[in-house]
Amino acid sequence: MTDFFDKIKYQLDKKLPFAVYSKPVSDIVTGVFQKTGAVHNLTDFNARGFVFAPFAGNDVVFIPKDDAEVITVKNEASIEAVLNDLEQPKIDETAKQEFESLVKKCVSVIKGRQFEKLVASRTEKVPVTTDVITIYKRLLQTYPNAFRYCFYTPKTGLWMGATPEQLLKAHENTIKTVALAGTQVYSETKEAVWEEKEQQEQKFVTDYILQRLSQYSSDIQATQPYTFRAGNIVHIKTDITADLKESSNIGEVINSLHPTPAVCGIPKEQAKQFLLDNEGYNRKYYSGYLGELNYDFGSGTSSKTDLFVNLRSMKMSEDNAQLFIGCGITKDSNPEKEFFETVNKSITMRKVLV
């Protein structure tokens, strides 16, 4: 595995794009190392490669299969050392006030019936005291149920994250996705009990996805909501499967779903514009999507797509990490409670940076 991580260092030193990732509940780490320094943009959803898309706009960065060396290794590290002694970070009172003000504005426009739901987010900068390779290894250990990635191009910079949310999984004409919402701190001693606000938030996401997919499929199945763990927090999750009509294509489905209500709001386009106007910072690739398009790099199989929503993510620089964290807002949201939800989401990410 040492040679594998040396390859990451080499790509960074030479400013060559790469994507390194491990899928949920997998001990296999895949590296897609671009051979040239070109920055490719996705212009055709029939192309095969690795995509990295922003929250807003069409600037989808792409590593083509034909310009990549693929290496896979097995991750054999234990998770126990990383999960111990998670501590509450010191609260930035200015950031708290600003985020609570944003949540109040969201609640106001929701009560005014402009929106059913909005997803407010914020960003934090955390000093980095260790190297990129160590941080990524900790991500692999800490979030075994998530899609854990490290991505770099000269255009995007270096990003890392561990997202629990699938945007879309497809093989031939069958697609799978999830509706994920609601957040609680994980407890080993008691089962999660979900309030009506959290259940309603998750139902918004589920209903939206089902409505969107109905344009492309006449056969859609959804599970009952259930509790799903991701690191030190849990969510409500629904699994959804659909068979695409012959006239549908994967690009249409991706663009229809993204951004989902889990990261944006309802109605989608108006919610996206509201967030761009009011959050006070640029999300960039946070809450965009990333993953394999039309090709499984691990098995070498074509016609497979495996995309994830870019949550629990951070943009790395030489001496700090910019964390991106958010939460769903409904008419019943409490601004202070929502702020501390974002704090809980940042704890494990902070831990891997120490």
Automatic annotation (TrEMBL):
Its EC number is 5.4.4.2. It comes from the Bacteria. SUPFAM superfamilies: ADC synthase. It is an enzyme of class 5 (isomerase). InterPro entries: ADC_synthase, Chorismate_C, IsoChor_synthase. It catalyses: chorismate = isochorismate. Gene3D superfamilies: Anthranilate synthase. Residues 96-345 form the Chorismate-utilising enzyme C-terminal domain. Keywords: Isomerase. Belongs to the isochorismate synthase family. This is isochorismate synthase. It comes from Flavobacterium suaedae. The gene is menF.
